[in-house]
Amino acid sequence: MIKLIALDIDGTLLGSRKKVTKQNIQAIKAAREQDIKICIATGRSASRVEPIAREIGIIDNNEYIICLNGGGIYQYDKDKKLQKIKETLFSIDDVKYIYDNAVENKINCFSYNEDPKSTYVIKNRGAFIWFMKKISGRKAFVYDNQKTDQKAYKVIAYGKKKNILAAKPKFAAKNYEMFSWSYVSNKTMNIEISPVGVDKLYALQEVSKIYNIKQEEVMYFGDGDNDKRAIEWAGVGVAMKNAASHIKEAASHTTGHHKKSGVAQKINEIILNK
Predict the structure, then answer these.
(1) What is the second-level CATH architecture of the domain 92-194?
(2) Which UniProt keywords apply (predicted)?
């Protein structure tokens, strides 16, 4: 019996035009009416989750959101205010280590600093940095080893594929978590880097413990590399049709495309028996 549904956002919950479809909203509401808890699990920051959390009823029902790939676990209280449950960040020394290696390997970085208004970049130009500044609302500061004073929830590294691959062993040596974020072209690559042991699965397990919900009672929807471990762990791990083949292979179930309300399709099938 499912007692908790956890949902990735981008490529999973959101449909066309980055909106939650009516079908997904209706299915989530119907699941909640059967006393099933709903949780968001995303790489986004909390501020970018709030409108979606409101739309699918998480705020009104005082439920949890997992942000920044597990770097932040939060709950909306009875006054609908966001409360910090747990946060895990890179130390300042870790941030410097990542950036120093990025400089050495000629790749750019964008950090989700503890200060929600700032980020460190190596070069403050280019489409990648422009896009990240736009979606995050953070002001970019060019990295300086001597002036760096911010911890970070996660760092996104971008550059030529060969340069990213050259840098990864340095990050792996520290046991940082790394997830493929996107491939901009055949020659460029993005990866997300998180602190040791911090990922969506880690945070999902924390939320499950709070609710006293067992592994087999968890249903997880996702499409990305950062969803794979949670999909494998959940009693019902669901990969979207638009997910890469290795994500689908990790899942116990697959569902429709995120633009075709795939979340609703599988909730209707497994939970609502439609």
Answers:
(1) 2-Layer Sandwich (3.30)
(2) Hydrolase
